[in-house]
Specification:
The protein is mostly helical. It has two domains: 96 residues, no CATH class; 29 residues, no CATH class. It contains five helices and two strands. It has a two-stranded antiparallel ribbon with strand order 1-2. Helix 2 runs antiparallel to helix 3. It is elongated and about 75 Å long.
Length: 128
């Protein structure tokens, strides 16, 4: 079970690096393509490509906003906070609060070692 969780975590981290962290670079690339297309004579074909690229940029920006909203769990996202340093620090800080540093066993003893915490968690979920 733990091996499956580890593989899932690694897969999600790789996906995040590829899909989420890469968004600003991809937006810049698409914007550069739009600039090149606008440089010459705007034919109908070029206009269509500009619109298509603009729509892709909009979709990527929306996906990025949704990602940060889900990651932050913060109310101020609703109120229009843009990608500020404070916002990103808060979202990252929430990650540390989601860690399980200790658990107590069925005898009421606290355990902090990773192996013991994993063992207690497994016992709990197997008992459900």
């Amino acid at each position: 079970m733990l091996d499956k969780l580890r593989r899932t975590r690694v897969g999600l981290l790789n996906w995040q690096k590829k899909e989420v962290n890469d968004v600003p670079k991809r937006i810049k690339t698409y914007q550069d393509r739009i600039d090149v297309l606008k440089w010459g004579t705007l034919t109908e074909e070029r206009k269509g490509k500009v619109v298509e690229l603009s729509n892709q940029i909009d979709r990527m920006r929306l996906a990025e906003r949704i990602y940060w909203k889900q990651r932050s769990g913060a109310i101020w996202m609703i109120h229009g906070d843009k990608n500020t340093t404070f916002f990103h620090r808060s979202a990252t800080n929430r990650y540390s609060f989601k860690q399980i540093g200790r658990l107590f066993d069925k005898h009421g003893q606290w355990h902090t070692s990773l192996s013991k915490v994993q063992e207690i968690a497994e016992e709990f979920y197997k008992g459900l």
